[in-house]
Amino acid sequence: MGRIIGDGGWYFHIVDMAVLPEHQRRGLGDAILKTLLAKIRREAPPAGPGGDGRGGAYVSLFADEAGRRLYAKNGFAESAPKELGMVMRL
Ligand SMILES: CC(C)(COP(=O)(O)OP(=O)(O)OC[C@H]1O[C@@H](n2cnc3c(N)ncnc32)[C@H](O)[C@@H]1OP(=O)(O)O)[C@@H](O)C(=O)NCCC(=O)NCCS
User: Which residues pair with 60 in a beta bridge?
Assistant: First the structure.
C-alpha cells in the first residue's frame, strides 16, 4: 500500500508505503511508488510563473532506512541541510 496526502494544491506528501514482508524485494514497492507519482503528475496543477523558477508539484516523504534506496531510485533527494523535516506528535 501507499497513500498520497494533498489538498489539490502543489504539495503532496507520500505516506504509509508498506509491502507485506513475504512479498518484499519483488518490485511491488517500486510499482506502488511509480503509480502514486504518475497520479500526481496527472492531477497536479500546472507550474505557474514566479516562485523559485522550478514550479510544479512538490512531493515529500519521510524515508525510513528500508525505503531510502527505493525513493532515491525514483528521483527523491535529501532535503537537508537546506530544509530539515520537523515533526510533532499531539
Ligand atoms: C520499503 C518497502 C515499501 C519497499 O517495498 P518492496 O516491495 O520491498 O521494494 P522493491 O522490491 O520494489 O524494491 C525497491 C528497491 O528498494 C530496495 N529495498 C527493498 N527493501 C529494502 C530493505 N529492507 N532494505 C534496503 N533496501 C531495500 C531494493 O533493494 C530495491 O532496490 P534495488 O532493486 O535497486 O536493489 C518495504 O520494504 C516495506 O514495506 N518495508 C517495511 C515498511 C516500511 O519501512 N515502510 C516505510 C518506508 S519509508
Answer: 13
Q: What is the pLDDT of residues 26-69, one digit of tens each?
A: 999 999 999 999 999 999 887 766 555 566 899 999 999 999 99
The residue whose CA is least distant from atom 47 of ligand 1 is 67
Q: How far is the CA of 69 from the centre of ligand 1 (A)?
A: 7
The span from the CA of 61 to the CA of 74, in Å, is: 12
> What's 83's DSSP letter?
S
Quick one: which of 44, 42, 80, 81 has its CA closest to 59? 44
CA distance 66 to 55: 30
Q: pTM of the entire structure? A: 0.88
DSSP assignments along 45-80, one per residue: PPP-SSTTS--S-EEE----GGGHHHHHHTT----T
